[in-house]
Amino acid sequence: MGPVNRRTALKLMAASAAVSAGACGRQPEAIVPYVNMPERLVPGEPLAFATAVTLSGVAQPVIGQTFDGRPTKLEPNGDHPAASGSDAFTQAAILSLYDPDRSKAVRKGADTASWDGFAGEFLPRIEAHRAKRGEGLRILTGPSTSPTFFDQISTLLDRFPEARWHQWDPLGEENVLAGAELAFGRRLKPVYRFDRARCVVSLDADFLGAGPEQTLNAARFGAGRRVWGAKAEGFLRLHVIEPVLSLTGSNADHRLAARRGRVAELAQMIAARFGAENLPEGGIEEDARIFLERLVQELSAHRGQALVVAGAAQPPEVHALAHWLNETLGGLGETVEFLPADDEAPPAAGLRELVDDIDAGHVETLLISGTNPVYSAPGDFDLAELLGKVPFTVHHGLYRNETAARTTWHLPALHDLEAWSDARAGDGTVTLIQPLITPLFRGRSLFSVLGAFFGTLDADDREVLRAHWRRASGAGDFETWWRKSLRAGFVEGSAPQSVRPSAAAVPKPVAPAVEDEGYELVFRPDTKLWDGDFANNAWLQELPDPVTKLVWGNAALVSPSDALNLGIEDGNLLEISLGENRLMLPAMVAVGQAEGAIGLALGYGRPEAGVIGSAVGVDVNPLRRLDALWHATGAELRATSDRGRLIRTQEHSDMEGREIIRDLSFADFLHGTEEKDEEVPPSLYPDWDYPDAAWGMVIDQSVCIGCSACVTACQSENNIPVVGPEEVERGREMHWIRIDRYFRGEPDAAEVLFQPVPCMHCEKAPCEPVCPVEASVHDREGLNVQVYNRCIGTRFCQANCPYKVRRFNFYGYGDEQAYENLDDPLYQAAANPDVSVRSRGVMEKCTYCVQRISRAQQRADREGRELDEGEVRTACQNACPTQAIVFGDTNRKDSLVSKLKRARHEYDLLGELGTRPRTSYLARIRAVAASAGSEPGEGA
Amino acid sequence: MAQIFRRRSNAIVKVALVAVVFVPVAALVFAGVMARSRYADGIGLTVDQPVPFSHQHHVGGLGLDCRYCHTGVEEAAFAGVPPTHTCMTCHSQLWTNAEMLRPVRESLAKDEPIAWNRVTNLPDYVYFNHSVHVENGVGCTTCHGPVDKMPLMQKAEPMTMQWCLDCHRDPAKNLRAPEDVFATNWNSADGKIHGHERLKRYGIDPAKLTDCSTCHR
Question: pTM here?
């Protein structure tokens, strides 16, 4: 169009006025009922189904809530023996289900194809292999615990005896199983009973950190540290030796930072004190010696209640040593139980064997499912190139990822919430997976794809599953068994009998670590992206790492003294070189890290993750080696003055002498006489009276491990938008509950303190009187509510809130100005219909899940009864694996929240301001007094 | 030199001066009245429907209970619009060839739902729940008007926040005995007599009904 003159401008104005005037008519909205309404369904009311999602093949049992056939929220399945709370991955699974970047069609190369087209090529090929007894046929899968899958693969291998099944898990627990084999002569999976232990030693084991057993471990750990509920007889004390500060290390009472390669040496010293012979003694620094003395003394004081846990990154010898120690200390069968890991699954070969076979030209057909080796394989070999050598490769997965781009065919898979399947939970209980929604795209399950080996790609997954369990259940009346198990979500009593292994072998010396000059690279699963599988999940990308508080990227974690030596500070780009490989990533000075160790999180820098996750952070997989997956020595570092991007949600970690997190020792808790400070400053604000309920919350800091499941649960429940890296950088993240992390003490050996901070729902709320339009108001049940449709966005309330829990929509994050593709209609299906989606210019904050309160009250009203104690549970409370969050009616004297509010160690955050928060905290109880950390034996 | 202004210019200026004051005021008054009018609220306007369903015939004439079709009303936020199968319980036997019912038969045959047009609508940030109103003695016709006399469904009340609050501030007059909730011939005089005792019986605390969180989340 040419230059706009006056006439054109007037014409355009008139036209637009006419158009907008014409749009004023009433546009009726459609109501579309069913043709035939499914039974039990009431439009707009949620239905709940027991199912599970998997992490590294392990079931995370959930109750899925669906609205009109649309899953919106996953709650832990409270009846399941292994379920107590949830984790961030499980909570974020809903978002992945609706990811518009998921693969939608079968592809041959870059072209769209069909399942029939694939069957036309694949089935004759399988027939040809069958004639050769399966020679040249290879299947590569990710980790699995599914009995039906094991059954299928066994049958398959019987039919194709020359075929081979390989497994690749970049975060595999091979060392754990090999360690048990070393000690007991059998591959066993240890299950730890932290609830029965009083003294726990972690040898580089991050059992509280992200992982498939996190919730189970955290729940048991929490039970060992909770002082309410059942009578607290003692208090779990945790000693941790680790290279990089982990979630477990953050919860330690005594922690020693040591390079990963040195943990074995320290473990041998511990064993030597308990009578193990022929172990080499090494030199030891003074602080490590004190640490070990205390540790040994406490272990011996807690025979029968002691537990030594070795991490998956440690070599099998260290595991064997831990088993021997547990036996010596009377822990076998008490504090640690063992599940058989070798009886159900046929033996699988590893990635190394596959690579060798491809190299030797033995592989003609390769099916890859549920794993992304082109991205996640270590740097020893170029798998992308190797795949080119196989004549026929198939990738089956949720995304067209790095591996899919290099295979002949790509097949879309089903999300766990669309599929029929089964898996074992952390305690071994068989958990049934049923779909909450019909497949959104044209995906099929692995059962269907493996069906090709039995002649059809059209197998009915439900029937495959039922056929297996009809045989395996041994139930006389299968239909009753099936319905009962499906309804419960798990098979009762299906956890395998724990194995009582024979005596552990006397530990053999571990080959001494090669003390290379140079730095040690410590590879760690990411707390949010895991092995990179969750890279395209925006909730997880924006979830702050519990310890580093990093979002949208990874960094090289460097110890403070190394940083000093290298002359670098946060954000300096660091060049790491290891042999031929080198890469650049931003450095971050990390508290509590062993000197000479560099912490590197896996899962970042994926080239083909999707719109959200591609090219976020740096891929460190090329530095890994298949024979030493977890650490590498001899790395060289070169500091540069260039700046990389480091986005953190909390930059300041000091309490500045204020009593933000109070703590006291267990001994003081038991015998202390200090009375609760009941004095409340006077206030000019009005008083309120609550004739019915008065909601309140108590957060127990003794058991909060900082895992952040609550943050993601809240995000899912309350339609909290993702703002993207640029906006987080400006401090505009929207989480309604955050976890503040503080450090206390010397940077090299700092104590870590976590504090979840939701809205305090103050009685004398500073946000209320400053709002010019009364959008921030008190309600008659004690809630401090925010009225979105009144809010005009002055942000006075935010400025006046001492807790900084109010969040402002600077842009239309939730709708028209969403980050990247998050406004896709498919993503909108993940929204909770009970909660408004906030628009631009509106303030929002934690509501105590008012929608859940209303729903419960309306249900009670319909049923003509009063609300039960504990009937209303907030999303964060439900997700918490350690029951650190307690919510309820403070008007009821019998409610748990009232009891905890009366506890002597309950206090208000910034109580001196006189805001009288309805959310209050229980002081953190520690095994030892904070100042006298070196006195052994006390308290426990 | 000729006169620049003619005689009638005076009149024009006078009219213009009056208009400068009067027109904006009139416009404001008009806008105010319009905004509060039955027209702006859509009261009494019928909405075109794929099938001209008559509540007058089915409720007033045949005496069908509201809950026969609106099954969710006692247990859910939405009262619900009946699935095609509900229509066909009768219409597979009655008026099986009526032209008017062709969309219903086609819906069943093709397994495609009928898209009805909404008559009453609330903004998305209002969380209205039918079940609690019905449970606490607020009858259908209180908000939906005399449906038994509507050949085609029309909105009977403004459904504005002001209108909601009129009742939430003083619900007594609208409270019915439980057996009268679905009655179409309820006499509002009954509410004025027994309203306050029902308020107690239903356990309603009007003070809580005006909390923002009652309707907005």
Answer: 0.93
